[in-house]
């Protein structure tokens, strides 16, 4: 049995890192569309009291992901790990938890309720160029001209598509512009928060075990979001928090989108 485990471990290690990255990109790239679809399923099944709401998805999804991560990485949850990190390490982890675990998904989910999912996905693609730019200017990372050219083309392409789409919609119905613009701004905020969190992680958290870091990020991210959502939206947004329909979907969503995506 031990020999089989070793062989499987060796097999996973032989797979190039780019493959894991590609699979993670596919999973995270589909998350907004899946969230939108789940919201529509809930609205159709429960008219007027949809349990798969913005607040419930993010909070319950974080809880489910946290439980799964604790089961997977339970050996890393010991006092030794908590004691070996400096105050700067904890401050960095909390900052990433706020940016990647609360602000970014909250902004993206709210954007989905204000604009088309295509807009959210498109604007979310500004995150890689932003991450690259921050790595160059803040971390001094060296990149070749092809990476810079690709980032510029990607960023310019997203802006061009959004601008042309906005002109087209404005010519049909100018009343849609404010709603679309607010959704696009929120999507940009979410992408920017992710880029900043990635930069902090690369600069400050490279020595922290992945499992421990993901547990802290999801745990504190969920707590921060719950407190902020209660303040801005009130407890009414969590009315259907204990719906079995919500939890069964969030277990699947968190296992595939959050946990597997982060592990990859």
Give an overview of the whole structure.
- With 264 residues, the chain is an all-alpha fold.
- The chain is 80% helix and 0% strand.
- It contains 12 helices and no strands.
- The protein has helices at residues 2-14, 17-29, 31-45, 54-72, 79-83, 87-112, 117-124, 127-139, 145-172, 177-204, 210-233, 244-263.
- Helix 4 (54-72) runs antiparallel to helix 11 (210-233) and helix 8 crosses helix 9.
- The two termini are 25 Å apart.
| Largest pleated sheet | none
* Poorly predicted ranges: 174-179
Number of helices: 12
Would you count the extended β strands for me?
0
The value of Rg in angstroms is 20 Å
Order of helical and strand elements: HHHHHHHHHHHH
Gross morphology is globular
Secondary-structure-derived class: mainly alpha
Distance between the termini: 25 Å
Percent of residues in beta strands: under 5%
Average pLDDT figure: 81
Name the helicity range.
over 70%
Would you spell out the secondary-structure blueprint of this structure?
Blueprint: H1 2-14, H2 17-29, H3 31-45, H4 54-72, H5 79-83, H6 87-112, H7 117-124, H8 127-139, H9 145-172, H10 177-204, H11 210-233, H12 244-263
What is the gist of this entry?
The protein is mainly alpha-helical and 264 residues long. It contains twelve helices and no strands.
